[in-house]
Write a structure and sequence with these properties.
Belongs to the binding-protein-dependent transport system permease family. LivHM subfamily. Keywords: Amino-acid transport, Cell membrane, Membrane, Transmembrane, Transmembrane helix, Transport. This is Inner-membrane translocator. One of its GO terms (molecular function) is transmembrane transporter activity. This protein is mainly alpha-helical. The protein has one domain: ABC transporter involved in vitamin B12 uptake, BtuC (Orthogonal Bundle). It is built from 13 helices and 2 strands; from the N terminus they run ααααβαβαααααααα. The chain has helices at 3-37, 44-62, 70-93, 102-122, 140-143, 155-177, 179-189, 191-196, 201-223, 234-248, 253-273, 279-293, 297-306; strands at residues 137-139, 152-154. It has a two-stranded antiparallel ribbon with strand order 1-2. Helix 2 (44-62) packs antiparallel against helix 3 and helix 6 packs antiparallel against helix 9. The protein is globular, with a radius of gyration of 20 Å.
């Protein structure tokens, strides 16, 4: 490979890693909800869209930086998620219906309502937050003057990636070091055993849906300086979160992190070497490959290696 080809490959891998970090944060929210509640939240992307509009309103009306709007969007999305779970999803879960997946159909309806409400309030026009650092980048030559390869890091992508790592670490600390977090993990592993141990599963489901909504709301704030915003944005990110959840393994946060990074790198490679329009196709290829060759997801592979099987 020539130096220019190596430079393009490394730049593509770096871009994919940065994208994968944000994808992982989006996927973790859906994974948590699926692990505890055993349902697929098909309104996940629309909840992220709501978080992005919260950040957009704060930026356009009060000049609040999108990254700082995380501190507002996260509690707003947490409350919204709690209300949706408590007053809409929980009652449906208790009803015996002909279609056992009626709660999944409900989340589709919730997503449609959120998208239409956003269209009514903000119209279908594309929105953006023209921050000063949107086009800024860091270059390897600024650090190493004699470098034979010129690599760059987009400032908004880099900041979003670092903040996604911080949020993920805080989530890991919460899930592993707090009683509530341990209860969430126990419920995801075995709901009946958690009930026998005195865990209030009903309350935990409400909290988990709020937590998953808050995480994807935070991801929306991190994506806003990078993406254009419009009401139908959520659909593609619901699909992305679903692919990550399947690829990582149902209910596995570690699998969601690895799956998000794999998907981000794969999409970046597809865009560079095949074409920008082929990225969604690459996403679909990974989804089908995971279903055929890794039905248990990445977490199943890690467990087999751990136990030497």
């Amino acid at each position: 490979m020539t130096s220019s080809q190596i430079e393009v490959l490394l730049q593509t891998l770096i871009s994919g890693l940065l994208l994968g970090g944000l994808y992982a944060l989006i996927g973790i929210g859906m994974t948590l909800i699926m692990g505890v509640m055993k349902i697929i939240n098909l309104a996940h992307g629309e909840l992220m869209m709501v978080g992005m509009y919260v950040a957009f309103v704060l930026f356009s009306s009060f000049h609040v930086d999108p990254y700082l709007s995380v501190f507002v969007a996260v509690p707003v999305l947490f409350i919204l998620g709690v209300l949706l779970q408590k007053f809409l999803i929980n009652p449906v879960l208790k009803v015996e219906a002909i279609i056992p997946e009626n709660q999944v159909i409900l989340t589709v309806g919730i997503g449609m309502v959120l998208a239409n409400v956003a269209t009514i309030i903000f119209t279908s026009d594309y929105k953006s937050t023209p921050v000063e650092y949107a086009t800024k980048a860091w270059y390897l030559s600024d650090i190493w003057k004699e470098t034979p390869i010129e690599l760059s890091l987009s400032m908004p992508w880099s900041v979003s990636f670092l903040l996604a790592i911080i949020i993920t670490v805080l989530l890991w600390f919460f899930l592993t070091k707090t009683d509530m977090g341990k209860s969430i993990r126990a419920t995801a592993q075995d709901k009946d055993a958690a009930l026998l141990m005195g865990v209030n599963v009903e309350r935990l489901r409400v909290f988990t849906f709020g937590l998953g909504s808050a995480l994807v709301g935070a991801a929306g704030c991190l994506l806003l300086p990078i993406y254009y915003l419009y009401p139908d944005l959520g659909g593609q990110f619901t699909l992305i979160a679903f692919v990550i959840t399947i690829l990582g393994g149902l209910g596995s946060t570690v699998g969601a992190i690895i799956g998000g990074i794999i998907l981000g790198i794969f999409e970046s490679l597809t865009s560079t070497y095949v074409g920008m329009g082929w990225a969604p196709v690459g996403r679909f290829v990974i989804f089908v490959a995971a279903l055929i060759f890794f039905p248990g997801g990445i977490v199943a592979i890690l467990k087999r290696k751990r136990f030497g099987k």
